[in-house]
User: Fold this.
Amino acid sequence: MKTFSISTISILKHWHRKPLQLFFALIGLSLATALWSSIQLLNSQAKNSYETAVDFLTASETEIILPLRSTSISIEVFGELRRAGWPVTPILEGKIPGQRPVTIIGIDPFTMSESRGLINKLSDEENPFQEFVLNNNFGFASEETKAYLETLSLELDISVSAQLSANIVITDISLAEKILGEQGKISRFELTAPPLKNWDFLEELDLRLVESNSLGDLEQLTKSFHLNLSAFGLLGFVVGLFIVHSTLSLAFEQRKATYMTFRSIGVPIWTVYTSALSEIVVLALMGGIIGVFLGHWLAFILFPNVASTFNNIYGINLGDQLVLSVTEVFLALLMPLLGTLLISMNFLLKLYRIAPHKLGSVVFLSKIYNNKNKIKLGSSIILISLIIILANSPLGLIKSFFIIGMTILTASILLPLVLSKILSLLASSVTIRMPLSHWFVADSAHQVNRIALSLNALMLAVAVTIGVDNMVKSFKDTFDVWLEKRLITDIYVRALDQNVAAQLIKNLRNEPMVKNIYPIVSSKSRFQNQPIDIVGFLPAEIYSKNWPLVESSEVTWERVRSGEGVLANEQFCYRHNLNVGDLIKLDSGLNSNLKIPFRIAGVYADYGNSLGQIMVKIDSYHHHFSRIPPTNFALEVPSNSFAKISDILTRNYGLVQSEIIDQSTIKELSTKIFDRTFAITSSLSDAMIIIATLTILISLITLSEIRVTNLAPLWVLGITRLTLLKLELSQFILMILFTLLFAIPTGLLICHFLTSYLNIAAFGWKLPVQYYPEIWIKTLIIASTTSILAIIFPTVLLFKNSASLMIRRYKNDA
Amino acid sequence: MSPLVKVENLSKFFESSGEIFQVFDQVNFTLEAQSSTALIGESGSGKTTLIHVLAGLEPPNSGMVIIDGIKIWNSKESMRAIFRLEKMAIIFQQYNLIPSLNVLSNITLQARLINALDEAFQYELISLLGLEKLLMKYPEEISGGQQQRVAIARAILAKPKILLADEPTGNLDNENTRKVLEAFEILSARYKTTILVATHSKSVAKKLDTKLQIESGKATKTVIR
Ligand SMILES: Nc1ncnc2c1ncn2[C@@H]1O[C@H](COP(=O)(O)OP(=O)(O)OP(=O)(O)O)[C@@H](O)[C@H]1O
Ligand SMILES: [Mg+2]
Assistant:
């Protein structure tokens, strides 16, 4: 115990003598942790907000279960569904009789997942959920609707909710039953989790599962976005760890003598280990704790875009409800702890090698470099071949992550290797007749090894920034075009009631404002045991003009119109390795033994959808898959007529507002998610580059102590400090420029693997990539400016007060 | 003949942890051009410090150092550096080789820097000091005594006007010491270099013209031959 405390104290004294090093180590750790934890925080917050968003109730973004023939479902069916394990919650919706078309939505707070959060968010009052559950007459409505409802003399205690739009009341389902006079009735079920696969069971109960009407699931898009953010956060963490590594390795080198002395006077290796380990753990925890708080702050101060994204998209004020749970803090601390331990492995191993009997033996550094270089070259060749093999094998999510990870690893092994190889080649070509240039190049080759880590941090930050920015920008551009094409008409209608749908088909064509009506039907099916959607549509001209096909032929639409061909989404084709012209056999929905052959006539982009989808002419659909008449319609109407049409639809056909979807709303929401995603990624890239710059700054400041020792021999020989300063600066600038150039192809490679591998594996669709040299140039300019500033400061400082420093260094360390 | 080096009222002290340690107190001496001098004194007496002050590396607290007519501590630091490069060569107690250059480049470095490489002399020195087999190695790959001989070769090859050597034979055996002294003699005889050698070795001191003894902050000069 005594040896332990003595050795620990003498090891820790180092930090007392070098407070700057301690400061840098803590900065590195806390920055790494901060970046990681802030992103985790935003992610989890965003998910919560998403799930509890008010949209859940009113938007037709979710899958629902409707009665097959009748207009309502009886309460017994609910029990049967729950017993069969279906994750459903009942909704009773109807019009309150009166002047205004007020819709009452009755929900069941106990089966609706997240209902507590949802309800609590509807009102500012204290714990509205409790009130909602306990008060039998409780409901939410907008202020104006509340005023109207009070004139109706119903038994209703309305709490005002700013989140709800006009003419909607939300109450408990039993209260809705009472007000509507529909005891024991349910109008539909909403799914609180992905549906079960036994659709037959639904049919037995006279029910059907209805697709969401919109463009697939926005949730899928947000998931893709969270995945990107997390990957980004992890990379940021790694870049931050570089700072820690460079300070810890310096601290280790400087204490080597202390360790050696301990070992030679007989302190057992385990005691030395224990004190070294406790030091690492304490450092990691200190940095981690600072980082968690910094991350919390970072999430809202440095990334105002991010916070406002969630405010805008989900209508929820993120800043008000950010609470760190104990587990979150714990998990956030685990990262820096593991990270620091990982990077310290190297030192701990070296510590073991400082055996007392090796004291004073000569170490041939250049030999070690040479051997290491061979190992590095070998491993990068192995890695590259692995990447090539993996890239040409079937897709997989984990595999794609591996490929990206290996690409980054290979790039960071190759960067110093290539750089020092080029420099040694240069060195051998620069004749020793020019002694200073000769020294310059020869020394640069050595210097590369000294600052390899910081160069790698910079390369990584710039490469990832270029890769991700390029990806986001190309996706954004494609997405805008795609959205425009995909939303062929201005208004979509999803009638929940079969009779209303029938009315719509019959009469809507005669409405003067409606130019055309395109029915859409869909049902679930399976293809090679994978769930798919089969969609019936009218292959009218508006489709053939606009539909976002990514693969097609001259006969695409001809085949679709003849009913012989179908359109398939990208997901479907990737998953089953199919292409235009291939024949597929789909299960008939009407005769379970029958398989109907179709030819894939075209492939279309279907971003955000997780399922395979087949589009077939509506006549063949009814003939082969289901006779249920369509309840979804796309209406072609004059532009800017949404308000009028929706008025007609609610007044004359009894549709409720939630059944009518304005495509501009969808467009706006989707574009908003994208713009904000872009804003977040660029904030993150900025943060990454700042951290990488800091890494350079810090490692140069820490290195300058060693650097003086390298330069002192030249100074005492009679090379002026100004000359040395110029040489030193040009050396760094050369290396940084090379690093930045190296980062471009690496970034594009990362971009390629992200879009053509990871994305397909994770979401089934390929991100189309365009190249944006202006993004690369912008990143390069920012990165080179900041990093050159970062090298000027410590270098000038090094030479400013170096004369005495050099002679002292030279005496002590030579 | 006027002296090449003139030291007047030189004082130097170190301050560490609040205490003042006086190394020299009002020291005066001169070194004649083309003379060779042994700088002697016990360990810690200030030999290395004196060489650093003469080389323009470490400033004195007061007094004057005039070399070849130039008051070196009155000129700018960059001037001192150039003076050091062109007029002086220094052999350091710690060898002071450039780690990123191989032995050959190290040997020729100073001579090349002042554009005065004499290739014939280079080969003569390399073979005299027995460095032929080491030329392509790097400093960290050779022994302490070998490094010392490389440092000596570098200094001598520059044919300086004045050579300052700090314990140049500290790590060498008798045979090598004799060779180093031979090299010094060539330098002095052929190139008229003024030599100041700090040494503990009596045999080395005996080979030189003059003795400069440092003792309790004062310097006394005695002519041997
Ligand atoms: N930077 C410094 N700070 C404080 N004291 C110093 C410093 N450098 C040298 N000294 C002191 O000055 C004195 C002279 O040191 P110097 O190195 O010149 O001695 P030396 O004669 O060369 O000894 P040796 O024969 O052992 O090489 C010593 O007592 C030493 O402790
Ligand atoms: Mg000495």
Notes: Chain B has a mean pLDDT of 89.
